[in-house]
Amino acid sequence: MNPKKDLLSIEYLGADEISQYLDLADNFLEVLARPIPIVPSLRGKTILTLFFEASTRTQISFSIAAKRLSADVVSFSQATSSVKKGETLLDTARNIEAMKVDGVVVRHSAPGAARFLAERIDAFVINAGDGAHEHPTQALLDLMTMRQHFGTLNKLKVLIIGDISHSRVARSNIYGLKTLGARVAICAPPTLIPLDIKELGVEVFYNLDDVIGDFDVAMALRIQLERQQSGLFPSVREYRTLYGLTKERVRRMKKKSVVMHPGPTNRGIEIDPDVADSEKSVILEQVKNGVALRMSVLFIHAGGKIE
User: Fold this and answer.
1) pLDDT-based confidence at 90, cuts 50/70/90?
2) For residue 112, what is the enclosing H or E element?
3) Is 7:302 a contact under the CB 8 Å cutoff?
4) Comparing C-alpha atoms, which of 277, 255, 274, 4 is closest to residue 127?
5) Catalytic residue among 57, 115, 149, 267
6) How far apart are the first and last CA of the chain?
7) Is 237 a catalytic residue?
8) Which residue of 36, 52, 56, 135 is surrounded by the most CB atoms within 10 Å?
9) Would 15-134+287-301 and 136-285 be classified into the same CATH topology?
10) Which one of the listed residues 46, 49, 92, 107 is annotated catalytic?
11) Of the candidates 210, 202, 215, 198, which has an alpha carbon nearest to the alpha carbon of residue 242?
12) What integer is the mean pLDDT of 279-283?
């Protein structure tokens, strides 16, 4: 299979393309379990992590993934960059092109920023989150985690709970899950649900207690206060009461169901500490799978070779 130059979105990936990323990521888990978890697949390649928004887990995950593949990694910090001096994204693109890096991992607050960059440079571009649009690698690692637990995503019942309107993770997961045959539903206050969400083929619920027992996967989303306008729900306390994954709610879930969260978690709001640390939680598995999945993505798009 010849991959596209860039990974900008899950929306237009076919089931075979998604499976290619997941299958290779499963293989890289074996590499990460070795005493020396490094392979020379991308030796001589240079990967730039270009993060215009704050990130800890995603940026570190990509950096570790690149280093495990023996690539050189250069990290960009907006706080110390020329962006603070008025440099535009187009200027940045031109400078990247002049530096001859092989790949760019970009996060930006503007939807479409990754595509803008990809259309203007020869290096491959991986979208690490563009505004409220998409976050492809987070969705892929979530799909990977679900597949490990259930074997297949076909007909799997997945409930995504919380701030759907501002969540690029929700959008990417919906695209990927639907492509692989899962049944997807969302549950949130009406003010946190996009008006056109049913066009994506999802069911919509407003009462979590009515439906929590019907699903195999419950994925809580972080309340993104930094992206919201005020007044979308009365209070954090009321949100937790109505939509939080509490121990009492999780007890009503299926015996083999799992609880997920893309992180970072607001403990005590969208998910209680007892739930986040419970046997049903696969949050740390998501983090571990994130490195292997991003190794897979970098390997595929950088033209890596198995040695």
Assistant:
1) confident
2) none
3) no
4) 4
5) 57
6) 19
7) no
8) 135
9) yes
10) 107
11) 210
12) 97
Q: Residue range 8-25: average pLDDT?
A: 97
Is the pTM for the entire model greater than 0.90? yes
Which position has the token pair 């976050």? Answer: 135
Res. 215 pLDDT band, cuts 50 70 90: very high
Q: Which residue has the higher pLDDT, 293 or 80?
A: 293
Domain borders along the chain are 15-134+287-301, 136-285
Identify the residue with better confidence: 81 or 189: 189
Burial class (CB in 10 A: 0-12, 13-18, 19+), 1: exposed
Question: Which one is catalytic: 56, 80, 84, 85?
Answer: 85
Q: Which of 108, 135, 183, 280 is catalytic?
A: 135
Where residue 93 falls among pLDDT bands split at 50, 70, 90? Answer: confident
Q: What is the third-level CATH fold of 136-285?
A: Rossmann fold (3.40.50)
Catalytic residue among 46, 58, 137, 179: 58
Note the pLDDT of residue 228.
47
Q: Nearest 5°: phi and psi at 203?
A: -85, 150
Can 49 be counted among the known catalytic residues?
A: no
Check if 133 is active-site: no
**Are 8 and 115 contacting, i.e. CB atoms less than 8 angstroms apart?**
yes
pLDDT mean across residues, the chain: 91
Sign of CA dihedral 275, 220, 267, 9: positive
Q: Which two tokens stand for residue 56?
A: 């800890």
CATH topology of domain 15-134+287-301: Rossmann fold (3.40.50)
